[in-house]
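Appendix B, Record 12. Input sequence as logged:
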Amino acid sequence: MRKKAFLQLALGGISLSLLASCGPQSGALPISSGSSAPIGVTAANTELGQARAYQSAGKTRKAVSAYKDIIKSYPYTDASGEARFSLARLYDQEGNLLKAFEAYQGLISQHPGSHRYATAIQRQETVAHSAANGIIKNNFLGMKTRISPEKTEKMLIQVRENAPRAVSASKAQFAIGRIWQQEGYAEKSIAAYQKISTDYATSSHAPESLYQTGQILILKSERGNQNKANVNRARHIFTDLIQRFPMHRRAADARKRLAMLSGQDIQRSYDTAEFYQKKGKTQSAIFYYREVLRMSKSGALHNQAKQRITELGG
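Logged structural output:
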């Protein structure tokens, strides 16, 4: 037993000697001596204090440089998270919203456990919607620039992906649809709105996204694209809106749009019947006059079509 214990102690001593002689292993954290904090943390905190001192003294450029140095040199420390947040806030207060957005994203992606996380999420959302709503400042000189729809879409997608189950996700997705709708990109806008129907079907933005999709399709049919499929798609979407959200204010608007579309169909059939009658094509005229009767129960066109059928011997 004594020999066994002696051998174990001897082997342990040899192992320690080998470790000491070989030096620290690649990738291993350095062993701190005489300090409760890992090597680097103290230095990072010291530099963070200096950066904040620069900021308090109004030395913005020095503060920015110091915060960036901390982020680069000590990326995994709490000080790095604080530096990212302070940098974002500094950009935010100066009106440099694009850089503020990027700095907030750095904290969100690299320091999800930070107590600044929720604030960063909220501020980033605000910045993205500011870009979506128009022109924002994007540098320290206060110059205002219109953010491209592509860039704004990327910002809103980032907001959506950072909190995919939060209310902010459907709000961001709806904003994407509005951007492309305002820019005149019908298909991109429709695709963005349809994503709300599939991914955020119960959100408060779902009824409006359905209504706007129907409106875009009607507009497409009126502006040179007489594709009947667009009108039929609009009918389907308005009907879906009414069935899913019968008490929503857009349900009433959808009913009006359906009535309008129905009226247009009646007028179109009547005009077609009149065209064939003038051409002397009696049977074709009677067919379309009967279409008017089928689609309407009363009204001026209904009565006129009925009279025409009688006159033509139908």
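Residues 267-314 form one domain.
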